[in-house]
Amino acid sequence: MFCFQCEQTAMGTGCTGCAGVCGKSAVEAGLQDVLTGALVGLARTCQTAAPTAKTYRTILEGMFTTITNVNFNTTTTQAMVDKVHAEAAALSSTPAADYDMNQMWNADEDIRSLKSLILFGMRGMAAYAYHALMLGKSSEEVDSFFVKGLSAIGEDWGMDELLPIVMETGKVNLTCMALLDEANTTTYGTPVPTTVPLTVEKGPFIVVTGHDLKDLELLLKQTEGKGINIYTHGEMLPAHAYPELKKYKHLKGNFGTAWQNQQKEFDGVPGAFLFTTNCLMPPRKSYIDRVFTTEVVSFDGVTHIGEDKDFTPVIEKALELGGYSEDQHFTGINGGSTVTTGFGHGTVLSVADKVIDAVKAGAIKHFFLVGGCDGARPGRNYYTEFVKQTPADTVVLTLACGKYRFNDLDLGTIGGLPRIMDMGQCNDAYSAIQVAVALAKAFDCGVNDLPLSMVLSWYEQKAVCILLTLLSLGIKNIYLGPTLPAFVSKNVLNYLVENFNITPTSTPEADLKKILG
Ligand code: FSO
Ligand code: SF4
Asked: Within this chain, do residues 170 and 300 fall inside the same structural domain, yes or no?
């Protein structure tokens, strides 16, 4: 096998041998390559046959399947390959040939690097487009770009042709994140600042993780009045801030921290766990009986909830396990008993005047966006220390699951606003961009001239598309860690450093000194 799409890739170069660091087997990795090659074939077919809504949905499902920590199951991946082939056959009696991914893995390293940025960025974007679609929203610009980008993977092109498509991936992902933001806020309302307890109350409960708000809503409806409490986990935490989800009294709080701690945190817990997206780690024997998947998430031996969205097996398992006999007062990584969320662009921009006045009066000296993924490898404590060391006259905006390193810290307030503000899931990077653009407008300057620094952590492919979006907007001086992607070749890195001054994170002390200079 060969896979180097995520931050924990073996030796920082690539997973080879019989399994990846994430637990994906060589057989599954090979099948995911076959699936990607089939998707390139489907995109090629679309150049001569008009794609339908079903074609685009198939592309999104196929791409989402290959994101890190989504699918470990060769049976369901093979079924997805068959589905892609069937779709190509439905479009044309002479569908185009599949692409052999080994051609890409064995290409010149700069070409492989640019194609990887396009492919991995599109995988991340596919997840966002999929969530928007589940809420009834799609975009012609986003859909057609998947055909263009996938076709490019199969072309024998040079850097001059591929580089603009890398940037276009970022640009289209901005449209895609805006689409998802619109889907979320029109369906569930504008997020409001919300304090979320970390206590798990006694009695039966279900923990919902991943990014899909629609799945959470369906589960909340199906569990209403059944004496079962619902808790969020990982990237589902921001759900508490949406009025139309918040209204359910049995949506109680948040369980656990970021994804990489699940094997430890789920062990021995008398509740059921529902995975709506990544990040699934191979469940241990001790709790695999209480894990459930839905959508494209799949693991051999784990009960899957299909398209009918009948959550009865999850509900029955929660009732059978019965939950804790007494309330359990869990804490965050730093000992806090609550976390806050709900500071999306709607909330932050509603107090924009207050924020602008605070900056003008010198009460707020600097903004940091400390956001992105968490991960298992050492070195991620950088982000905790960085946030702890930010001066009292600065604001920390955050998003995605990396925030669990510091979101239970009480850093006080500035002008009535908390110093740490959680903007939401990784796709809510859209909110951060909206706030940055509004501030730049208010101060009549460019985003790069604002007292704003982005200190990002990456792990999987959604972070890749977000990074490309920031670059496509011309945002410079991003600090990126904990390590640089293995798929960025030396020449591509030089290009990113020269044009965007991307800087690898060093130590919190040195980086803060450099930023606040
Ligand atoms: Fe984290 Fe996993 Fe949202 Fe990623 S849960 S690592 S960036 O999936 O997608 O933030
Ligand atoms: Fe390795 Fe990451 Fe690929 Fe898993 S997803 S096989 S850990 S590079």
From this structure: no
Q: Is 68 in the pocket of ligand 2 (CB under 6 A)?
A: yes
Phi-psi region of 444 (alpha: psi -120 to 50; beta: other; left: phi over 0): left
- pLDDT, tens digit, 9 for 90 and up, residues 204-235: 999 999 999 999 999 999 999 999 999 999 99
In a domain, 215, yes or no: yes
Structure tokens at 449: 């001239």
Whether 448 and 493 share a structural domain: yes
Tell whether 45 and 122 lie within a shared domain: yes
Is the domain of 203 the same as that of 278?
yes
Q: How far apart are CA 277 and CA 211, in angstroms?
A: 6
Domain count of the fold of the chain = 3
Q: Tell me if 157 sits within 8 A of 115, measured CB to CB.
A: no
Q: Euclidean distance between the first and final Cα of the chain, in Å?
A: 46
- And the tokens for 310? 């009948």
Q: Is the C-beta atom of 373 inside 6 A of ligand 2? A: no
User: Are 275 and 293 in contact, with CB atoms under 8 Å apart?
Assistant: yes
> What CATH number should be reported for the domain holding residue 419?
3.40.50.2030
Positive or negative torsion for Cα 148, 153, 156, 159: positive
32 in Cβ contact with 77 (< 8 Å): yes
Q: Which residues are annotated as a binding site for hybrid [4Fe-2O-2S] cluster?
A: 211, 235, 279, 373, 401, 426, 460, 462
Q: Is the ipTM beyond the 0.90 threshold?
A: yes
Which domain does 240 fall in, by range? 194-329
pLDDT surpasses 90 at 416: no
Task: Write down which residue in 187, 211, 232 finishes a domain.
Answer: 187
